[in-house]
Structures are given as structure tokens and as C-alpha cells.
């Protein structure tokens, strides 16, 4: 019963100054709308940019690196065991990039419950021959089916069918940039030279565009068997094993574990792409900061209107107190006013924020670099709506706190005497 | 011993700003149930100050105040609010109605705060009070649509809604013309005689005071006659 009375009084005071209260509420609405739209858009953009790299990057990559042996013979020699050896100009011995016993590694990996998928790969340095000119290039020999499953390979193929790589022998899928340089069309046969000097014709079955121009100018894809032939290697030669995990966050620890078990190099996605993580978090930090600033400004709007209202309603407050309302009741009245402004303005803000996001989502956004994107990216994470809602209530509560306290402390005697 | 409604014991009051002045000294008196008492005295002698203390709104005083056998000295703000709500009806010189609400709701507000009766019962009771004051026709108007005399009658109806044990007024007729003052005085008299209502009214109008049961006269913060 008590609340109904407080509510009635609040509504009456609110309606008596409905224009100003509306403006205060619009302030909150604007703040929340921008907060939602900004975060949805920024996060959408973040996801997009991260996706560019992260979706196509294995969580863990196993490979061999040509590097000098860590323990040199001198340090193993019994005569020098107690001394400290300095050896300069250590050279790696002619070791291969091949991952030995990869079949058993893959088998072990596939039975690991933390691993969601595995795709093997060969990277081969080549030259694309264009007339008399040689362009440096990299051919990725991929396990087409698994590559598509793990990295949505299909999405980046802008012309031709990616499955042709598997079906047509000696076929190649060129990067868009590389194809433009070579003036190659689908169906053409291009020549590549391997690092060992062999020259091999390959049939172009399609183009891909990753969104990163530097990659598109250099890289191409072929099937594993084609690449093995290209390198004149046996059919169990592979150089990389790409692993996707169920939980990407475990990548660093699992990478370390695999490095020890399989005695190969293992790099995790966090180490390989640390700069993207920082970029994303800075962008979201900025969005939050701007959104919260907007809300705080709206909070000052509420603070002002409440102060004004209290100043104007001194007489009414004095009367309420003289007829038996306590300071706490008066306090509740003004807090209720503040919160209704916050809840009303905030709810509208969430609605408009959703509307604005949906609108941005419709704006065409075509860029050469991002073939799969047609409109601006939006992330409709309910988390933003939750934070926005909670924050609108918290700001209005604090905006109402001091004016309400002031109102509750009004001494009716001073007001009544003042007449 | 007759029922004592209000008792003031050795009340002293100082104002500290700009210099320390003693505005009330040694106020002692009692009010019995059903008495209609007026307080008179020259302007500035401390009548309003005393009334604000007696109505529990001013707590900065020395001495003791007992209303309905409750000593109010150490009560908290919300407890005093409760005492005002339940036991005291206050009528001001200026009408002090809430323009946001209609007349009926204005009368009901202290009752809603007390919360002893339901909305419907209170509405019924408020209309009854308005009828006693012969303004039930204005029940649904806003206070700013009423004349000064009508507003004052609404204020009296509001003071009556919780059946207080005492009604206090600070020059309730001070702002009214002769005719309306007469109406208000007659209402007070009727309340005292017919409903055995205790009333304590500050006034400048000696004619008004002469017709009450008892006159308390003040001078320079002291009671010189009662
Ligand atoms: N807030 C205050 N600070 C200092 N002195 C005050 C204050 N309020 C009132 N006074 C002084 O206290 C004395 C009593 O004032 P009070 O209002 O009680 O007089 P009153 O008898 O009601 O006069 P009136 O008949 O004109 O209404 C006056 O001398 C006044 O100047
Ligand atoms: Mg006075």
C-alpha cells in the first residue's frame, strides 16, 4: 500500500513537469541507443576483422623449423661437461621441413577429446612464371575437405569450385592478386617453378580472395597430392598439421604439451596473432568508454531536472512533511521519479538501439578486401542490452540520489515561515 | 483529572543566527481534551515559533513536550512524522494545498499515509469531512480553482481526516476577509462543541480570541496570561 502512495505522488509531480522529465528521459534514451548501436557495430566490426585472421588460423600449428641443434657435440663431450662452451656461427644441418610420422601424430590428435579437427598441409615455395618474369609465390597444399571444414575455405573462393582441386589432377586455385598479375583465367594452364628448379604446368580451377591483399598476391592453393608431386616428395610428406580446439583459450598450454609429446614445433594462435587481440580489446574499450560517457551526461540531465523540481516543489514537500510524511518518504518519491525516468528512457533506448543496429545492418558495405561481406557487420549480443539496461538504472539512481537526499532534508518550518 | 492532550514543560528556544537570542522562555501549560484555546500576542513575540515546536516540526528546543502521554524529546524524525500524521492536524495561514492533486485527494493524502483505512473508506470519509465544511461540491476541482476561503476549508478538512487529537492553526484566518474568517471560526467552534475537538489557534484577531474557551497571551517569548 505504501508504495502505491509514493508512486501516485511521484507520478503527479512528474506529470506536473512532464516536458522537462520527457527531455531528461530522452537524454537517457539517446545515451542507451548510442551505447547499444556503438557496441553492436564495434563488436561486429571486431568480429569481422578478427575473423579475417582468426577463423583462418589454426588454434595450434605443428611444424618443423630449420634451426641449429640445441645441444652441440662439445657440450656432450665428457671433457667439457664442467665448462661453459661458446660456439659461434653454428649452422643448422640440412634438415627437412617434413613432419615425420605425421600419420601417427594425426591419429593421436584425432582421438584427443580437446581437439575438434585436424587438417594437414604442405607449404611450398614456388615461382609463378609470367612470360620471362618469375613472381615469388607460395602454394599451400591442402587437404581440401578438412580445410573447408575447419577454415570455411569455400567462403573465400570467389570464382570456380574449390572441390575441383581434389577432382582435377594438377590443378591450382590462385589468389586473386596473383591471378591478376598473371592475367590468368579459369581453365588456363600456368607454369610454376619449384625451388629445386623443376617447371610444372598447373590448371587454374578458381580464384580466392582472403581480404588481405598481401596474401592474395602471393598465395595459391593446390591439393596435397599435387603439391607432393610438385616437390617430388612421397605421398606421406606433409609440413604442417593444423589443429582446431573446442576451446581456443587452452591453445597455449596444449601447444606446449604437443611440442613435447611429438617433438615438433607448436605455435598457438594467441602467440601467433597477439596484435589482433590487443586491437579488439582497445576498440571495445573505446566503445564502452563512449557509451558510458553518454550515459553519465544523461545522468547529469536527470540530476538537473530533479534539482529544479525540488526547488519548485519546496512548498509541496514542506506540506507533505507537515502532514506526516517522513524524510524517507520524500526521498522515496524523488528516487522513484529518477528511476522511472531511467527505466522509461532506458527501455526506449534499448528498443531504439536495437532499431539503429538493425538499420546499420542493412547499410550496404562492399569492399574489395572483404568479398563475403555485403552490409555493415552488427553483433546482436544480448550482453550489451543487459549492460545498457543495468547501467541506465544505476546512473539514474545516482543522479537521483543527491537531489532526493536534499529533498528529504528540507525543513518544513523554514519553508512555512518563509511565506 | 481531565484528559490532558498536550503538555509543555519548561520549553526554551534559542535562535543562534546571527546572534544568540532567546525567543521562548519557560513555556509551561497544558491543554485538556475538548478545549478551544487561542494564543495571542504582539508580532514577533514567538507564537509561531512555539506552535512549530508543539507541532513536532521544530525539534531544536530545550524542555519537554508531551502529546497524548508520549514524551517526544528523543523520538526520531520518522516517529515524529508519524505523530504529526496521526495526532495533529495543522492549518496554516497560507493554504498549502498540493496543486498536482484534486481537492479530494489533497484531503485524503494524510489518511493514505497513515494507511489505516482502505482507499474507498478514505474517499468516503474525505467526502464526509468536505460535507461538514460545505465544500463537497468542489471535491474534484484542483486547489487553484478555488477561492481563498474555500481553500482554507479544504485545509481544515485535510487536518481532520485522521481524526487528530488536536488541531493547531497558525493564523488560519489571517489571510481571509471578515466573512470567510467568520465561517472558519464557526467551523472551529462547531468542531469544539459538537465533536469535542481540541484546538490550539494562534491569532491576531482579538475578537476571534475572545470567543474561544481560553486565551494564552504571550509577550517577548513568555506566557503572561492563560
Ligand atoms: N530563523 C530565525 N532566526 C533568527 N531569529 C528568528 C528566526 N525565526 C524567527 N526569529 C525571531 O524569533 C522571534 C519570534 O518569531 P515568531 O515568528 O515566532 O513571531 P510571531 O509571534 O509568530 O510573530 P507574528 O505575529 O508576526 O507571526 C522574532 O523576533 C523573530 O525575529
Ligand atoms: Mg507568526
Description:
Chain A has 419 residues and is α+β, with helices and mostly antiparallel strands. Chain A has a 6-stranded mixed β-barrel with strand order 2-3-8-5-7-6, surrounded by 4 helices. The longest helix of chain A has 39 residues. In chain A, α2 packs antiparallel against α12. Chain B has a domain of 158 residues: P-loop containing nucleotide triphosphate hydrolases (Rossmann fold, 3-Layer(aba) Sandwich). In chain B, the strands form 2 sheets. Chain B has a 6-stranded mixed β-sheet with strand order 6-7-8-3-9-10. In chain B, strands 2-1-4-5 form a 4-stranded antiparallel β-sheet, covered by helices on one side. The longest helix of chain B is centred in the last third of the chain and has 18 residues. The chains are: A alpha+beta (419), B alpha/beta (226). At the A-B interface, α1, α13, α14 and α16 of A face α2 and α3 of B. The site of magnesium ion has 3 residues of chain B, from α1.
Brief synopsis:
Chain A has 419 residues and is of the alpha+beta class. Chain A is 55% helix and 17% strand.
Features:
heterodimer, A: 419 residues, alpha+beta, 16 helices, 10 strands, 55% helix, elongated, B: 226 residues, alpha/beta, Rossmann fold, six-stranded mixed β-sheet, four-stranded antiparallel β-sheet, 36% helix, globular, binds adenosine-5'-triphosphate, binds magnesium ion
Walk me through the topology:
The complex is a heterodimer of chains A (419) and B (226).
Chain A: H1 2-16, H2 18-55, E1 60-63, H3 73-76, H4 102-110, E2 115-130, E3 133-142, H5 144-151, E4 157-160, H6 164-167, E5 171-175, H7 176-182, E6 189-194, E7 199-208, H8 213-218, E8 219-223, H9 224-230, E9 240-245, H10 251-262, E10 265-268, H11 269-272, H12 274-312, H13 314-322, H14 327-362, H15 382-408, H16 412-417
Chain B: E1 4-15, E2 21-32, E3 36-41, H1 47-54, E4 62-67, E5 70-71, H2 77-87, E6 88-91, H3 103-114, H4 119-132, H5 148-160, E7 166-170, H6 178-195, E8 198-202, H7 206-210, E9 214-219, E10 222-225
Parallel strand pairs in B: 3-8, 3-9, 6-7, 7-8
Antiparallel strand pairs in B: 1-2, 1-4, 4-5, 9-10
Helix pairs in contact in B: 3-4, 3-5, 4-5
The complex binds adenosine-5'-triphosphate and magnesium ion.
Amino acid at each position: 500500500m505504501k508504495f502505491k502512495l509514493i508512486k501516485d505522488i511521484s507520478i503527479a509531480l512528474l506529470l506536473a513537469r512532464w516536458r522537462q522529465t520527457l527531455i531528461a528521459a530522452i537524454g537517457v534514451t539517446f545515451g542507451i541507443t548510442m551505447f547499444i548501436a556503438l557496441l553492436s557495430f564495434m563488436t561486429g566490426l571486431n568480429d569481422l576483422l578478427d575473423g579475417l585472421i582468426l577463423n583462418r588460423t589454426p588454434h595450434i600449428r605443428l611444424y618443423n623449423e630449420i634451426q641449429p641443434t640445441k645441444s652441440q657435440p662439445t657440450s656432450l663431450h665428457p671433457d667439457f661437461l664442467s665448462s661453459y662452451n661458446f660456439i659461434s656461427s653454428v649452422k643448422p644441418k640440412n634438415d627437412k621441413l617434413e613432419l615425420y610420422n605425421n600419420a601417427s601424430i594425426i591419429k593421436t590428435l584425432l582421438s584427443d577429446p580437446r581437439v575438434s579437427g585436424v587438417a594437414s598441409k604442405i607449404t611450398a615455395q614456388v615461382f609463378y612464371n609470367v612470360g620471362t618474369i618469375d613472381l615469388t609465390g607460395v602454394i599451400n597444399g591442402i587437404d581440401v575437405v578438412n580445410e573447408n571444414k575447419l577454415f570455411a575455405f569455400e567462403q573465400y573462393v570467389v570464382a570456380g569450385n574449390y572441390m575441383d582441386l581434389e577432382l582435377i589432377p594438377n590443378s591450382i586455385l590462385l589468389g586473386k592478386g596473383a591471378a591478376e598479375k598473371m592475367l590468368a583465367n579459369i581453365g588456363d594452364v600456368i607454369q610454376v617453378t619449384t625451388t629445386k628448379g623443376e617447371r610444372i604446368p598447373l590448371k587454374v580451377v578458381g580464384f580466392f580472395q582472403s581480404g588481405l591483399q598481401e596474401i592474395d598476391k602471393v598465395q595459391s592453393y593446390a591439393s596435397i597430392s599435387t603439391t607432393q608431386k610438385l616437390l617430388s616428395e612421397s605421398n606421406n610428406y606433409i609440413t604442417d598439421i593444423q589443429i582446431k580446439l573446442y576451446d581456443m583459450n587452452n591453445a597455449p598450454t596444449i601447444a606446449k604439451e604437443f611440442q613435447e609429446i611429438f617433438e615438433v614445433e607448436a605455435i598457438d594462435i594467441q602467440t601467433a596473432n597477439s596484435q589482433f587481440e590487443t586491437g579488439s580489446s582497445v576498440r571495445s574499450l573505446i566503445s564502452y568508454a563512449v557509451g558510458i560517457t553518454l550515459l553519465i551526461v544523461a545522468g547529469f540531465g536527470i540530476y538537473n531536472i530533479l534539482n529544479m523540481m525540488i526547488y519548485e516543489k519546496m512548498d509541496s514537500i514542506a506540506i507533505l512533511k507537515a502532514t506526516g510524511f517522513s524524510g524517507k518518504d520524500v526521498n522515496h518519491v524523488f528516487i522513484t521519479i529518477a528511476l522511472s525516468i531511467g527505466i522509461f528512457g532506458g527501455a526506449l533506448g534499448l528498443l531504439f538501439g536495437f532499431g539503429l543496429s538493425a538499420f546499420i545492418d542493412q547499410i550496404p558495405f562492399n569492399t574489395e578486401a572483404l568479398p563475403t561481406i555485403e552490409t555493415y557487420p552488427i553483433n546482436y549480443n544480448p550482453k550489451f542490452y543487459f549492460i545498457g539496461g543495468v547501467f541506465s538504472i544505476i546512473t539514474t539512481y545516482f543522479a537521483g540520489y543527491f537531489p532526493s537526499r536534499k529533498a528529504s532534508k528540507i525543513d518544513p518550518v523554514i519553508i512555512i515561515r518563509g511565506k | 483529572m481531565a484528559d490532558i492532550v498536550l503538555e509543555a514543560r519548561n520549553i526554551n528556544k534559542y535562535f543562534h543566527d546571527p546572534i544568540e537570542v532567546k525567543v521562548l522562555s519557560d513555556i509551561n501549560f497544558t491543554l485538556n481534551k475538548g478545549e478551544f484555546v487561542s494564543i495571542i500576542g504582539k508580532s514577533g513575540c514567538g507564537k509561531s515559533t512555539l506552535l512549530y515546536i508543539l507541532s513536532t516540526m521544530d525539534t531544536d528546543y530545550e524542555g519537554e513536550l508531551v502529546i497524548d502521554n508520549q514524551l517526544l524529546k528523543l523520538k526520531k524524525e520518522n516517529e515524529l512524522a508519524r505523530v504529526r500524521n496521526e495526532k495533529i492536524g495543522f492549518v496554516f495561514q497560507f493554504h498549502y494545498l498540493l496543486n498536482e492533486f484534486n481537492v479530494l485527494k489533497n484531503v485524503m493524502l494524510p489518511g493514505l499515509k497513515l494507511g489505516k483505512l482502505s482507499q474507498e473508506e478514505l474517499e468516503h470519509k474525505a467526502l464526509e469531512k468536505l460535507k461538514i465544511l460545505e465544500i463537497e461540491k468542489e471535491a474534484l476541482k484542483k486547489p487553484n480553482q478555488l477561492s481563498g476561503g474555500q481553500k482554507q476549508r479544504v485545509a481544515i478538512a485535510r487536518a481532520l481526516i485522521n481524526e487528530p487529537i488536536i488541531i493547531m492553526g497558525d493564523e488560519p484566518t489571517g489571510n481571509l476577509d471578515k466573512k470567510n474568517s467568520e465561517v472558519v471560526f464557526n467551523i472551529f467552534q462547531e468542531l469544539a462543541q459538537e465533536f469535542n475537538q481540541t484546538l490550539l489557534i494562534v491569532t491576531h484577531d482579538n475578537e476571534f480570541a475572545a470567543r474561544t474557551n481560553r486565551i494564552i497571551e504571550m509577550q517577548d517569548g513568555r506566557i503572561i496570561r492563560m
